[in-house]
Design brief:
120 residues, mainly alpha, Cytochrome Bc1 Complex, Chain D, domain 2, 2 domains, elongated, iron, Cytochrome c, heme binding, transport, Cyt_c-like_dom_sf
Length: 120
């Protein structure tokens, strides 16, 4: 009787392992999911970038003149980070800053990133 129980448990464990092998994502899929999306090419529109910052409430942390506050000073962020780095931070979030990938279009994020990268 115990042999039948053990055989059954081993069979169930094998079936479960096979199911997991075929349903869990592979290393490549996980790496692709964690990779930030490429920054789209857009023509910078300063007025639209400023409007996006105000509409999303960015000034509540970064200040109305981007002087900082709860968030870092962004007045000369372009001398420290590239547009791609800024795009990644806005898209994925960092530290206390939330991700905006579900709130803004990638083109809007790219426009804000280019505008901020120009601040040197």
């Amino acid at each position: 009787m115990q042999k039948w129980i053990m055989s059954g448990l081993i069979t169930i464990a094998c079936v479960f392992a096979i199911v997991l092998i075929f349903t869990l994502p592979g290393k490549e899929e996980v790496a692709e999911q964690n990779k930030p999306p490429a920054m789209p090419e857009v023509t910078m529109d300063a007025a639209a970038a400023e409007a996006t910052l105000k509409a999303q409430g960015c000034i509540s942390c970064h200040g109305d003149q981007l002087q900082g506050g709860a968030g870092p000073n962004l007045q000369k962020i372009g001398s420290q980070l590239s547009a791609e780095e800024i795009y990644k931070i806005i898209t994925k979030g960092q530290g206390g800053m939330p991700s905006f990938k579900d709130k803004l279009k990638s083109e809007e994020i790219a426009n804000v990133a280019q505008w901020l990268a120009a601040k040197k």
